[in-house]
Hints:
With 121 residues, this protein is an alpha/beta fold. It has helices at residues 12-24, 35-42, 61-70, 88-97, 109-119; strands spanning 4-8, 28-32, 49-52, 79-83, 101-104. It has five helices and five strands, in the order βαβαβαβαβα. The protein has a five-stranded parallel beta sheet with strand order 2-1-3-4-5, sandwiched between helices.
Amino acid sequence: MSKTVLTVDDSKMMQHMVGFTLKQAGFDVKQAFDGQNALDVLGGQKVDCIVTDLNMPGMDSVEFIKYLRQHPVYKVTPILMLTDQKDEIRKQAGRDAGATGWLVKPFNTDKLINTIKKVTL
Length: 121
């Protein structure tokens, strides 16, 4: 049975690239364009991993992750932040919100896939 990954990014090009990469690797993929849309897409259903951009209009990833960590269904769901932000303050904000890990854009496809496989064991 394949694992389900929700990707959240306001860039349609990035959504396409990440979604294509994960589908090619055998994952089922759901996609959203910001945190609020992601909550709508999730609809309270469990996924195996969430990959989210940091900066998005509306509900950004830090706010999104904080919300999810308070929800019993998503309390332990692996959440990876995928962003071009490299500064430590932004990383710490993600960690403090409850992010599981951090990947930097442009992403390495093997690293993305291997990281998701590792956190969804």
